[in-house]
Automatic annotation (TrEMBL):
Transmembrane segments: none annotated. This is rRNA methyltransferase 1, mitochondrial. One of its GO terms (cellular component) is mitochondrion. Residues 42-128 form the RNA 2-O ribose methyltransferase substrate binding domain. The keyword Methyltransferase applies. Keywords: Methyltransferase, Mitochondrion, rRNA processing, S-adenosyl-L-methionine, Transferase, Transit peptide. Gene3D superfamilies: 3.30.1330.30, 3.40.1280.10. It is found in: Mitochondrion.
Amino acid sequence: MGVTKVGSERPEFRRWNKQENWGRKTWKEATESTVPKIVGEGIYGVGPVLAALSAERREFYALYVQEGLDLSSNNRKKKDKKGFEKVLKIAEKVGLTIKDASKHDLNMVADNRPHQGLVLDASPLEMVKIMQLDPVSVDEGKGSLWVALDEVTDPQNLGAIIRSSYFFGASGIVLCAKNSAPLSGVVSKASAGSLELMELRYCKNMMQFLVSSAENGWRVLGGSVSSRAISLDEVEPGPPTILVLGSEGTGLRPLVERSCTRLVRIPGNIPSDLDNSEVNDVNHESSGREFLSFLAVESLNVSVAAGVLLHHLIGKNSAGSLPDGYTQTNSSE
């Protein structure tokens, strides 16, 4: 009778097949399984979420709140705490589904942008098509101004322009139907939530919109660094105006520029009377004036330029038009 040795049988080995995962989840599967599935688009940050819920211009699907968030922390601004509490109160009032989510998962939804523990799943904003502005009437308010944006594609710039427009009391924003940044959560965040409150329109032909509006009595001012542009100091605030701004880097398209009744530039500390030969000859022995022209930035960022132009054109007349509680130091973003 033979004796069977314990452990003498060799185990069966299988060659690894990359089609098999041996019962384990991949990193992508493990992370994606907990990340909220956004039905519409994610609006994040206390200010934008509160503005969206208050304006009721979107359809709401769910509100995601960071689990374990300590609102009593001294590091959180008092205004942010109040805004957070208002968000929860409105969400409960309208019967919105509130779900807990980890900070990591909210980071994934917000693409690692600061969300302050809140992400709102909501439908995209809808804009109204516009062909032209109505004819100017005697009842048209002094300082009435619309901002027309010619192919502004950077969402941060778009959001900042909308924020300045809302702060100074512009009547609304007109965007190109094509080649404009989509009205995403990034834009809403950059606008500190004012995207949710601003009057928004779009046009298929910016040139036709400007020409038709000018025929209806609107002054059309195009922001430009062209030598044909007059200084902002020479522009009188008051008449109903469309302020036209172009994209970062390229500015206004030639046909759009020609559709303006006047071009305007912001005067800066940059000499404009040096010709190309003088600039090409700049060296370490050149005067400070020549170096200033050679090294200086030619123009302001489009969102900064928008703020300067808006302040001159309507800023002094808009002090009483701001919403209650909205000040220049509003940072609940």
